[in-house]
Amino acid sequence: MFVGYIRLDTNVIPLKTEAGATEIRTRAMRLDARLRSLLILVDGHKPLSNLQAALGDGAEENLRRLRELGLVTWDDSLSSQMQRPS
């Protein structure tokens, strides 16, 4: 039985939202260092695989957290971007 969440394809390209850009400038949310580093690296060009290479295995979970906070987004409509964990 599958338990948990569907993993993102490593080719998904996250985008910083306006709120994310504001957070970089203001530090109003006082993100921890790992979240802030990831937010800085999100540029709309780097795929998840590059972010994972730079920040390690926690990048996907941290990216999801940034999305929950409204600081990044990505296109959910592309089914090719989703895969079940192996």
Automatic annotation (TrEMBL):
Domain of life: Bacteria
Protein name listed in UniProt: Uncharacterized protein
